[in-house]
Specification:
The complex is a heterodimer of chains A (about 350) and B (about 475).
Chain A: H1 19-51, H2 57-71, H3 74-80, H4 86-95, H5 103-116, H6 123-137, H7 141-147, H8 149-170, H9 175-202, H10 213-225, H11 229-235, H12 244-251, H13 259-273, H14 284-298, H15 301-307, H16 309-330, H17 340-348
Helix pairs in contact in A: 1-4, 1-5, 1-8, 1-9, 1-10, 2-9, 5-6, 6-8, 7-8, 9-10, 9-13, 9-16, 13-14, 14-16
Chain B: H1 30-37, H2 41-58, E1 61-63, E2 72-74, E3 77-84, H3 86-110, H4 115-118, H5 124-128, E4 150-157, E5 163-169, H6 176-189, H7 191-197, H8 205-214, E6 226-229, H9 238-248, E7 252-253, E8 258-261, E9 264-269, E10 272-275, E11 278-281, H10 285-288, H11 304-309, E12 314-316, H12 327-330, H13 333-341, E13 348-349, E14 352-354, H14 358-367, E15 372-375, E16 384-386, H15 392-404, E17 409-412, E18 419-424, E19 427-436, E20 438-441, E21 445-447, E22 452-456, E23 470-477
Parallel strand pairs in B: 3-23, 5-13, 6-7, 6-11, 11-12
Antiparallel strand pairs in B: 1-2, 4-5, 4-20, 8-9, 9-10, 14-17, 15-16, 15-17, 18-19, 19-22, 20-21, 22-23
Chain lengths: ~350, ~475
């Protein structure tokens, strides 16, 4: 048993935050952001298909396959479904609890994390998550298709925005806030890379298709997935140009869903969480974030295309994973797992 | 259509609202009756639905076990309040204070000189053989000599309306959050009724609880850290734990958030370890510390008991209080009150037979079908036989159990619990109720004016537990008498 003098320094009570609580805030925030992004992805692609009724079955399948690929759950999907259609993909990404990345699973996880720290967040934040969860449980794929999916996805996005707004309006600017924001931007950055990657998976256009109607429509869909179409138009008055959309979603320093913007936020909140005050980062996580930010500040779209967009995006995803993981490890003072047996004891107690 | 049917059947029970004729409204219910008579049934239903929805949205729920999705249900809430006139409450309050004072002296004595055993008021064998007697705490001085900081005492009323104590809960009594949430719901449903009735507030509970906890803090600092220790999110009472933590503005912790070093308890925070001074624990003794009690407990904190013994941390309630809320000890409480306080008990017990006493045992075995038989260590309405409502085979099974292990059983005369009008199937019908007031023992003893009124929603049922079809009502203690 180490002597008491070796104990890490402590903050006064008002600022004390349990590691477990910090991580629940972080995951709550990530999961709600994730749910929102899946809703965006699904909605825009359903919409996109409506615009192109003429697509044959094979290209439809390619389209949905690429969306499953971009979520990284292609194996799980293949285990449970025969073919990728609008119907099966919606079921898989919206309601299937066997898919830990489905909207329902994410909202459930966000709510469960919130429930664990019910005493730490405002009543309004909790009620928003709880109501969204109740709403989702009352819905299924058939209902959603019957009443038009737009309303369904809009409701999810609204709940997520309401949650973020309420967090901003009712949650103190404290360490907990830093974890919430850090989680949100890590997740959003990751999802922006995946939205961009959809376009890669759909098909890298053959030379003749570049700038064609389908190509342009696809880039529009990508921009809409990130609610970026209007912002893009304001930044580039011209038509949707190939790669310009990618450039915007990667490099914009003012659009809040662009990779550059998200990583700048990540860098900021991460340094606050880890108390990194010096010019040179001390921790691996801060160093990785700083390096990624520097890339996003200095690279050009041509350089990325030369390197390969897909490869670049994958690399960014890996870096984001590492940063998130490291921050969790560094602020963790307890063994994370709770066993099934422990759950049982909790119930009986 | 009015909610109060002209054929309301008060039955042969004590009805809280009506005189035995089933028509005359008791004085303290008159204003409520007037309000209800002008309220269309549709309007009432609308308010009911709104309240249920609010509970669901706010997550005022308990968890149902054996369900992989962890289904949460709302605790059914009945909109007809239970009303207690001021004068009646004054007597209850005095009785409850008397009872907790005596029980606390009893616990102190049991863990020190054991005078009451030496004087043969309570048989020594009962205590020394009791499951919840913690030998490890003999001669240990708990902070401020208080053992029971939070007590929930279950009261019932017999056919004549006399209040009787059914049991004391001296370990981790639950339900206070529902007392507070029910009040919020009622204020929304019937705002005007409140202002005219003069209902005493229950909202001070959180503050009083925090004060009682702070009173226990060791002298280390003038800003003690108080935490609530929960078994975790899968516990059925988790909502209550987070609710109370929020009311008090204290952190809620699980066992794994705490660590003991040099007999001091610390919580693991993002900035390192922070010392904890007082723990409001909602975990039973058995699970608190795997190095002392159940070794397989993963909910507790290794070394916690040592830290408490060293006086570096205070626990509320103290360890070992379970010995005094044992169903067998219950039978001795009137004697315990007389022994320590020299007073007659203000609140009576239900007439109880001890299977351990030869004469009583004989009576129980011969009359089992007329009695309520309870196992000493079960809670929540389990391990219980209601003779008059049971089959011959069930009675036989209990008779065999009592004969084999008499120390473990008591029997009581069945009490016809009082009834309160309750909304069922579109009209008000009489349903049996009990009452759990909450007593806090800090610098002084306070009884929150109100409590949790539980109601057996099934027709004819006497079991009010939420796990077995029970619901709850708001409890109004009046400033005056009507």
């Amino acid at each position: 048993m180490p002597p008491a003098t070796k104990l890490p320094p402590s903050r006064p009570q008002a600022n004390v935050m349990l590691s477990r609580v910090a991580h629940s805030l972080y995951w709550m925030s990530r999961y709600i952001e994730r749910a929102e992004n899946i809703a965006r992805l699904l909605e825009v692609n359903l919409q996109f298909l409506l615009d192109f009724q003429g697509l044959n079955d094979a290209s439809l399948k390619d389209h949905w396959d690429s969306i499953i690929l971009s979520t990284g759950e292609e194996k799980l999907f293949a285990e449970h479904y025969k073919t990728a259609t609008s119907r099966t993909v919606t079921e898989f990404l919206a309601f299937d609890l066997r898919n830990p990345g489905s909207i329902l699973a994410c909202v459930f996880a966000a709510r469960e994390n919130a429930r664990m720290i019910r005493d730490q967040i405002s009543a309004e934040m909790w009620e928003t998550l709880n109501e969204l969860h109740l709403y989702l449980k009352s819905q299924n794929t058939t209902d959603v298709w019957a009443s038009g999916p737009h309303e369904f996805f809009a409701r999810i996005k609204q709940a997520s925005h309401l949650f973020q707004g309420l967090t901003g309006a009712t949650y103190s600017r404290s360490e907990g806030w830093e974890f919430i924001q850090f989680g949100k931007y890590i997740e959003r950055a990751d999802k922006t890379t995946r939205i961009l990657d959809v376009k890669y998976h759909i098909l890298l256009p053959s030379a003749s298709d570049v700038g064609g109607a389908v190509d342009t429509a696809q880039w529009q869909a990508v921009l809409r997935s990130a609610s970026a179409l209007e912002a893009y138009r304001r930044a580039h008055v011209s038509a949707i140009l190939p790669w310009k959309a990618a450039e915007f979603l990667i490099f914009s320093d003012s659009f809040p869903r662009s990779l550059h913007y998200c990583v700048a936020q990540i860098d900021d909140f991460l340094r606050r969480i880890l108390s990194e005050t010096g010019a040179r980062p001390k921790s691996d996580a801060a160093r990785a974030a700083r390096r990624l930010l520097a890339d996003l500040q200095s690279l050009s779209i041509t350089e990325i295309i030369d390197q390969g967009l897909h490869e670049f995006l994958q690399q960014v995803q890996t870096t984001l994973d590492t940063i998130g993981e490291e921050v969790v490890q560094t602020t963790m003072f307890y063994p994370a797992e709770s066993s099934a047996e422990e759950q049982q004891q909790q119930q009986q107690q | 259509m009015s909610l109060i049917s002209t054929t309301y059947d008060a039955g042969s029970f004590f009805d809280e609202m009506f005189e035995p004729d089933g028509k005359t409204v008791r004085p303290h219910y008159r204003r409520l009756a007037e309000r209800l008579s002008t309220l269309p049934a549709a309007d009432f239903n609308q308010r009911r639905a709104a309240v249920d929805l609010a509970f669901l949205r706010r997550g005022v729920t308990f968890t149902v076990y054996n369900d992989s999705e962890g289904t949460e249900r709302i605790f059914p809430f009945d909109l007809i309040p239970r009303i207690i006139p001021g004068r009646e409450w004054a007597k209850l309050e005095a009785g409850l204070i008397q009872r907790i004072t005596a029980l606390n002296l009893f616990l102190h004595d049991l863990y020190h000189g054991q005078k009451i055993l030496k004087d043969k008021i309570v048989p020594a064998a009962l205590i020394l053989g009791a499951k919840h007697f913690r030998r490890e705490f003999m001669n240990f001085n708990v902070p401020r000599d208080i053992y029971v900081h939070i007590c929930g005492t279950d009261l019932i009323r017999d056919h004549a309306g006399n209040y009787l104590v059914l049991e004391d809960n001296l370990r981790c009594p639950s339900g206070a959050s529902y007392m507070l949430e029910n009040r919020v719901a009622m204020r929304r449903a019937f705002p005007n009724l409140f202002s005219s009735y003069g209902v005493r507030p229950v909202e001070t509970y959180g503050d009083s609880l925090l004060k009682s906890l702070l009173y226990l803090a060791p002298d280390r600092t003038d800003k003690p850290n108080v935490v609530l220790l929960t078994p975790g999110v899968y516990n059925s009472a988790y909502f209550e734990h987070t609710f109370l933590a929020r009311q008090m503005g204290i952190p809620i912790v699980e066992g794994r958030d705490l660590v003991v070093r040099d007999s001091k308890v610390y919580m693991r925070t993002t900035a390192g370890l922070v010392q904890v001074d007082v723990i409001y624990r909602r975990i039973d003794d058995d699970f608190l510390d795997p190095t002392v009690f159940r070794a397989d407990s993963m909910l507790g904190v290794p070394g916690l008991v040592g830290a408490a013994r060293a006086g570096h941390v205070a626990l509320a309630n103290s360890i070992g209080t379970g010995v005094a809320d044992d169903k067998v000890i219950y039978a001795y409480v009137p004697k315990i009150i007389k022994y320590y306080l020299g007073e007659e008990p203000i609140l009576a017990n239900v007439n109880t037979y001890l299977a351990a006493e030869p004469l009583d045992r004989k009576y129980i075995l011969e009359n089992i079908s007329k009695l309520v038989v309870k196992s000493a260590n079960e809670a929540g309405g389990y391990g219980m036989l209601i003779g008059p409502a049971s089959t011959k085979a069930e009675c036989e099974s209990f008779r065999a159990q009592v004969a084999a292990n008499p120390r473990n059983f008591i029997a009581q005369d069945p009490i016809a619990l009082s009834r309160s009008p309750t909304y069922c199937d579109g009209e008000l019908q009489g349903r049996h109720i009990d009452l759990r007031p909450y007593i806090l023992y800090g610098k002084k003893i306070t009884v929150t004016p109100g409590g949790l009124t539980r109601v057996a929603l099934r027709k004819g049922s006497l079991v009010v537990n939420s796990s077995q079809g029970g619901g709850s009502k708001d409890t109004w203690v009046l400033q005056g008498d009507e």
